[in-house]
Amino acid sequence: MSNLARNTRARNMLFVMMTLVSAAHAAAGEGADGAPGHQGTWRDGLDADPRSEPPPRPSTIEELERRFLPNHEPVGDLHSAPIRRDERVEFTRRVASGACYAAVAFAPEAQQVDIDVFEGDRRIAQDLRRDPWPVATFCASGTGHVTIRVTGVRGSGQVQSRLLVDPQSRAHALGPAADPLHNRLLAVQRRTMPRSTGSSPVLEHHFDSAGSTTVVLPVPSRGCHAVVAAGEPGADHLTMRVRRRSVQNLGEDRRALAEAVVGFCAEAAGFIEVDLMLLRGSGAVQVQLVTPIDEPPE
Predict the structure, then answer these.
(1) Is residue 119, in this structure, part of any structural domain at all?
(2) What does the pLDDT look like over 105-150, one tens digit per residue?
(3) Backbone phi, then psi, for 28, in 5-degree steps?
Protein backbone atom coordinates (compact mmCIF):
# COMPACT_ATOMS: atom_id res chain seq x y z
CA MET A 1 0.00 0.00 0.00
CA SER A 2 1.42 3.39 -0.95
CA ASN A 3 2.04 6.13 1.59
CA LEU A 4 -0.72 8.22 -0.03
CA ALA A 5 -3.23 5.41 0.34
CA ARG A 6 -2.23 4.80 3.97
CA ASN A 7 -2.51 8.53 4.80
CA THR A 8 -5.89 8.79 3.10
CA ARG A 9 -7.19 5.77 5.01
CA ALA A 10 -5.90 7.17 8.30
CA ARG A 11 -7.56 10.55 7.68
CA ASN A 12 -10.84 8.82 6.84
CA MET A 13 -10.74 6.76 10.02
CA LEU A 14 -9.89 9.84 12.09
CA PHE A 15 -12.78 11.74 10.48
CA VAL A 16 -15.18 8.89 11.28
CA MET A 17 -14.00 8.75 14.91
CA MET A 18 -14.31 12.52 15.34
CA THR A 19 -17.79 12.42 13.83
CA LEU A 20 -18.86 9.69 16.26
CA VAL A 21 -17.41 11.57 19.25
CA SER A 22 -19.08 14.83 18.19
CA ALA A 23 -22.40 13.05 17.79
CA ALA A 24 -22.07 11.56 21.27
CA HIS A 25 -21.30 14.96 22.79
CA ALA A 26 -24.19 16.57 20.93
CA ALA A 27 -26.57 13.93 22.24
CA ALA A 28 -25.34 14.71 25.75
CA GLY A 29 -25.69 18.46 25.15
CA GLU A 30 -21.89 19.03 25.25
CA GLY A 31 -19.29 20.43 22.87
CA ALA A 32 -16.19 18.56 21.78
CA ASP A 33 -14.25 19.91 24.77
CA GLY A 34 -16.83 18.69 27.30
CA ALA A 35 -18.35 22.15 27.73
CA PRO A 36 -22.03 22.73 27.03
CA GLY A 37 -22.60 22.65 23.31
CA HIS A 38 -24.73 24.92 21.12
CA GLN A 39 -27.91 22.94 21.69
CA GLY A 40 -27.53 22.95 25.46
CA THR A 41 -26.54 26.62 25.54
CA TRP A 42 -29.61 27.60 23.51
CA ARG A 43 -31.94 25.64 25.80
CA ASP A 44 -30.35 26.97 28.99
CA GLY A 45 -30.41 30.51 27.64
CA LEU A 46 -34.09 30.25 26.76
CA ASP A 47 -34.97 29.00 30.22
CA ALA A 48 -33.04 31.88 31.76
CA ASP A 49 -34.69 34.50 29.55
CA PRO A 50 -37.12 36.43 31.80
CA ARG A 51 -39.51 36.78 28.87
CA SER A 52 -40.08 33.01 29.01
CA GLU A 53 -41.05 33.15 32.70
CA PRO A 54 -44.73 33.43 33.71
CA PRO A 55 -45.82 36.94 34.75
CA PRO A 56 -45.64 37.72 38.47
CA ARG A 57 -48.69 36.75 40.49
CA PRO A 58 -51.06 39.69 41.12
CA SER A 59 -51.24 40.73 44.76
CA THR A 60 -54.74 42.30 44.65
CA ILE A 61 -57.78 42.23 42.42
CA GLU A 62 -57.11 45.88 41.59
CA GLU A 63 -53.66 44.95 40.28
CA LEU A 64 -55.24 42.16 38.23
CA GLU A 65 -57.67 44.64 36.68
CA ARG A 66 -54.97 47.23 35.97
CA ARG A 67 -52.81 44.60 34.27
CA PHE A 68 -55.39 42.93 32.05
CA LEU A 69 -58.29 45.44 31.89
CA PRO A 70 -56.73 48.90 32.25
CA ASN A 71 -59.59 50.81 30.60
CA HIS A 72 -62.53 49.03 32.25
CA GLU A 73 -64.84 50.36 34.97
CA PRO A 74 -66.57 48.38 37.76
CA VAL A 75 -70.27 47.53 37.46
CA GLY A 76 -71.69 47.36 40.97
CA ASP A 77 -69.83 46.46 44.14
CA LEU A 78 -67.02 44.01 44.73
CA HIS A 79 -68.40 40.57 45.68
CA SER A 80 -66.46 38.71 48.38
CA ALA A 81 -67.08 35.27 49.89
CA PRO A 82 -65.19 32.22 51.21
CA ILE A 83 -64.76 29.35 48.77
CA ARG A 84 -63.50 25.77 48.91
CA ARG A 85 -62.97 23.02 46.37
CA ASP A 86 -66.13 22.21 44.37
CA GLU A 87 -68.02 25.11 45.99
CA ARG A 88 -69.71 27.80 43.92
CA VAL A 89 -70.27 31.50 44.50
CA GLU A 90 -72.82 33.29 42.31
CA PHE A 91 -74.06 36.84 41.86
CA THR A 92 -75.99 38.73 39.18
CA ARG A 93 -75.31 41.98 37.38
CA ARG A 94 -77.22 44.01 34.85
CA VAL A 95 -75.75 44.46 31.35
CA ALA A 96 -76.65 46.72 28.43
CA SER A 97 -77.12 45.48 24.89
CA GLY A 98 -74.01 45.91 22.75
CA ALA A 99 -71.64 46.77 25.61
CA CYS A 100 -68.60 44.59 26.34
CA TYR A 101 -67.72 43.29 29.79
CA ALA A 102 -65.19 41.27 31.77
CA ALA A 103 -65.93 39.08 34.79
CA VAL A 104 -62.91 38.66 37.07
CA ALA A 105 -62.15 36.73 40.23
CA PHE A 106 -59.17 36.73 42.59
CA ALA A 107 -58.45 34.10 45.25
CA PRO A 108 -54.86 34.62 46.49
CA GLU A 109 -54.91 31.68 48.93
CA ALA A 110 -56.22 29.13 46.41
CA GLN A 111 -54.43 27.40 43.55
CA GLN A 112 -57.26 27.54 41.00
CA VAL A 113 -60.72 29.04 40.68
CA ASP A 114 -62.80 29.06 37.50
CA ILE A 115 -65.31 31.65 36.35
CA ASP A 116 -68.38 31.25 34.11
CA VAL A 117 -70.89 33.81 32.87
CA PHE A 118 -74.47 32.77 32.10
CA GLU A 119 -77.28 34.49 30.27
CA GLY A 120 -80.22 32.52 31.60
CA ASP A 121 -79.18 28.87 31.19
CA ARG A 122 -76.73 29.64 28.37
CA ARG A 123 -73.02 29.94 29.13
CA ILE A 124 -71.61 32.93 27.24
CA ALA A 125 -68.07 33.16 28.66
CA GLN A 126 -65.66 31.22 30.87
CA ASP A 127 -62.05 30.99 32.02
CA LEU A 128 -60.81 27.55 33.11
CA ARG A 129 -57.07 28.25 33.22
CA ARG A 130 -55.12 26.73 36.09
CA ASP A 131 -54.68 29.86 38.16
CA PRO A 132 -56.60 31.71 40.89
CA TRP A 133 -57.29 34.90 38.89
CA PRO A 134 -59.64 34.05 35.98
CA VAL A 135 -60.87 36.67 33.50
CA ALA A 136 -63.85 36.00 31.20
CA THR A 137 -64.82 38.59 28.57
CA PHE A 138 -68.03 38.92 26.56
CA CYS A 139 -70.29 41.40 24.79
CA ALA A 140 -73.96 41.49 25.78
CA SER A 141 -76.42 40.47 23.07
CA GLY A 142 -79.32 42.12 24.90
CA THR A 143 -80.18 44.24 27.91
CA GLY A 144 -80.86 42.18 31.00
CA HIS A 145 -79.04 40.27 33.73
CA VAL A 146 -76.13 37.85 33.68
CA THR A 147 -75.06 35.43 36.39
CA ILE A 148 -71.38 35.24 37.30
CA ARG A 149 -70.41 31.89 38.82
CA VAL A 150 -67.05 31.31 40.53
CA THR A 151 -66.09 27.69 41.25
CA GLY A 152 -63.35 26.48 43.57
CA VAL A 153 -61.12 23.88 41.87
CA ARG A 154 -57.94 23.58 43.94
CA GLY A 155 -57.32 25.07 47.36
CA SER A 156 -59.55 27.32 49.44
CA GLY A 157 -59.76 30.84 50.81
CA GLN A 158 -61.52 34.14 50.27
CA VAL A 159 -62.48 34.95 46.68
CA GLN A 160 -63.22 38.44 45.37
CA SER A 161 -65.06 38.90 42.10
CA ARG A 162 -66.84 41.55 40.10
CA LEU A 163 -68.00 42.63 36.67
CA LEU A 164 -66.32 45.41 34.70
CA VAL A 165 -67.41 47.22 31.55
CA ASP A 166 -65.49 48.74 28.68
CA PRO A 167 -66.87 52.31 28.75
CA GLN A 168 -66.05 52.91 25.09
CA SER A 169 -68.15 49.93 24.04
CA ARG A 170 -70.99 51.10 26.27
CA ALA A 171 -70.88 54.53 24.64
CA HIS A 172 -71.22 52.89 21.21
CA ALA A 173 -73.93 50.41 22.27
CA LEU A 174 -77.44 50.51 20.91
CA GLY A 175 -78.37 53.53 23.02
CA PRO A 176 -81.12 54.49 25.45
CA ALA A 177 -83.94 52.99 23.39
CA ALA A 178 -82.53 49.52 24.06
CA ASP A 179 -82.31 50.10 27.83
CA PRO A 180 -85.64 50.09 29.71
CA LEU A 181 -84.05 51.39 32.92
CA HIS A 182 -82.48 54.34 31.12
CA ASN A 183 -85.84 55.05 29.49
CA ARG A 184 -87.35 55.17 32.97
CA LEU A 185 -84.65 57.59 34.12
CA LEU A 186 -85.28 59.84 31.11
CA ALA A 187 -89.02 59.76 31.78
CA VAL A 188 -88.47 60.97 35.35
CA GLN A 189 -86.18 63.72 34.10
CA ARG A 190 -88.60 64.93 31.41
CA ARG A 191 -91.58 64.84 33.74
CA THR A 192 -89.97 66.77 36.59
CA MET A 193 -87.61 69.06 34.61
CA PRO A 194 -88.93 69.43 31.06
CA ARG A 195 -86.77 72.49 30.32
CA SER A 196 -83.40 71.11 31.42
CA THR A 197 -80.70 71.49 28.79
CA GLY A 198 -77.92 69.14 29.85
CA SER A 199 -76.93 66.24 32.03
CA SER A 200 -73.93 64.33 33.33
CA PRO A 201 -73.04 60.75 32.33
CA VAL A 202 -75.31 58.10 33.84
CA LEU A 203 -73.92 56.11 36.76
CA GLU A 204 -75.33 52.71 37.61
CA HIS A 205 -75.18 50.74 40.85
CA HIS A 206 -76.44 47.19 41.40
CA PHE A 207 -77.86 46.37 44.83
CA ASP A 208 -77.58 42.67 45.69
CA SER A 209 -79.94 43.36 48.59
CA ALA A 210 -81.26 46.25 50.64
CA GLY A 211 -78.50 48.67 51.55
CA SER A 212 -76.87 51.96 50.68
CA THR A 213 -74.10 53.38 48.54
CA THR A 214 -72.59 56.81 47.91
CA VAL A 215 -71.63 58.20 44.51
CA VAL A 216 -69.81 61.45 43.78
CA LEU A 217 -71.02 63.70 40.96
CA PRO A 218 -69.34 66.84 39.56
CA VAL A 219 -71.33 70.08 39.55
CA PRO A 220 -70.07 72.01 36.50
CA SER A 221 -71.21 75.52 37.44
CA ARG A 222 -73.12 77.66 39.87
CA GLY A 223 -76.89 77.71 39.59
CA CYS A 224 -79.71 75.27 40.17
CA HIS A 225 -79.37 71.57 39.43
CA ALA A 226 -81.11 68.29 40.21
CA VAL A 227 -80.13 64.68 40.82
CA VAL A 228 -82.50 62.05 39.44
CA ALA A 229 -82.46 58.32 40.14
CA ALA A 230 -84.54 55.39 38.92
CA GLY A 231 -84.57 51.71 39.81
CA GLU A 232 -85.53 48.71 37.74
CA PRO A 233 -88.40 46.41 38.84
CA GLY A 234 -87.37 44.91 42.16
CA ALA A 235 -85.38 48.00 43.14
CA ASP A 236 -88.40 50.22 43.65
CA HIS A 237 -88.09 51.45 47.25
CA LEU A 238 -85.48 54.18 46.87
CA THR A 239 -84.55 57.13 49.04
CA MET A 240 -81.84 59.67 48.20
CA ARG A 241 -79.89 62.38 50.00
CA VAL A 242 -77.58 64.95 48.40
CA ARG A 243 -74.71 66.43 50.41
CA ARG A 244 -71.79 68.75 49.84
CA ARG A 245 -68.43 68.47 51.63
CA SER A 246 -69.87 65.52 53.57
CA VAL A 247 -71.73 67.77 56.01
CA GLN A 248 -73.95 70.23 54.15
CA ASN A 249 -77.30 68.61 53.42
CA LEU A 250 -78.62 69.99 50.11
CA GLY A 251 -81.84 67.99 50.02
CA GLU A 252 -83.40 64.55 50.19
CA ASP A 253 -86.20 62.45 48.76
CA ARG A 254 -87.66 60.00 51.28
CA ARG A 255 -90.74 58.85 49.33
CA ALA A 256 -89.39 55.27 48.94
CA LEU A 257 -90.57 54.90 45.35
CA ALA A 258 -88.96 53.51 42.18
CA GLU A 259 -87.60 57.00 41.51
CA ALA A 260 -86.03 59.84 43.47
CA VAL A 261 -85.47 63.51 42.63
CA VAL A 262 -83.53 66.10 44.65
CA GLY A 263 -83.10 69.68 43.46
CA PHE A 264 -80.57 72.15 44.85
CA CYS A 265 -78.78 75.40 44.03
CA ALA A 266 -75.00 75.78 44.20
CA GLU A 267 -73.00 78.97 44.59
CA ALA A 268 -70.00 77.54 42.71
CA ALA A 269 -68.79 74.52 40.77
CA GLY A 270 -67.59 71.53 42.78
CA PHE A 271 -68.66 68.06 43.78
CA ILE A 272 -71.67 66.58 45.56
CA GLU A 273 -72.14 63.28 47.36
CA VAL A 274 -75.31 61.33 46.62
CA ASP A 275 -76.45 58.75 49.17
CA LEU A 276 -78.68 56.13 47.54
CA MET A 277 -80.61 53.81 49.85
CA LEU A 278 -82.62 50.78 48.78
CA LEU A 279 -85.00 49.95 51.61
CA ARG A 280 -85.89 46.50 50.29
CA GLY A 281 -85.46 44.35 47.20
CA SER A 282 -82.51 44.19 44.80
CA GLY A 283 -81.55 45.33 41.32
CA ALA A 284 -79.93 48.11 39.34
CA VAL A 285 -80.34 51.83 39.99
CA GLN A 286 -79.24 54.62 37.65
CA VAL A 287 -78.45 58.14 38.82
CA GLN A 288 -77.69 61.33 36.89
CA LEU A 289 -77.11 65.03 37.50
CA VAL A 290 -79.36 67.28 35.40
CA THR A 291 -78.10 70.80 34.81
CA PRO A 292 -78.89 73.62 34.56
CA ILE A 293 -82.53 74.07 35.47
CA ASP A 294 -84.61 77.19 36.05
CA GLU A 295 -85.47 76.26 39.61
CA PRO A 296 -85.31 73.13 41.78
CA PRO A 297 -88.19 70.69 41.20
CA GLU A 298 -90.81 70.48 43.90
Answers:
(1) yes
(2) 999 999 999 999 998 888 888 888 888 999 988 888 778 889 999 9
(3) -85, 0
Q: Which helix (H) or strand (E) holds 66?
A: helix 61-68
Biggest CA-to-CA distance, the chain: 123
* pLDDT tens digits, one per residue of 201-227: 788 888 989 999 998 888 887 888 899
pTM for the structure as a whole: 0.52
Domain assignment of residue 298, yes or no = no
What is the tens place of the pLDDT at every residue in 46-77? 334 443 455 678 889 999 888 888 888 888 88
Q: DSSP assignment of 86-132, as one string?
A: T-EEEEEEEE-TT-EEEEEEE-TTSSEEEEEEEETTEEEEEE--SSS
DSSP string, 242-271: EEETTTEEEEEEEEEESEEEEEEEESS-EE
Q: Domain range spanning residue 106?
A: 61-171
- Residues 79 and 47 reside in one and the same domain: no
Q: Count other C-beta atoms under 10 Å from residue 211's C-beta.
A: 13
Same structural domain for residues 207 and 282? yes
- How remote is the C-alpha of 263 from its chain's centroid? 33
How many domains does one find in the chain? 3
Closest CA to 85 of 112, 103, 125: 112
The answer to whether position 118 is within a domain reads yes
Q: Which residues pair with 52 in a beta bridge?
A: none
Q: Specify if 40 maps to a domain.
A: yes
Q: Are residues 245 and 197 in the same domain?
A: yes
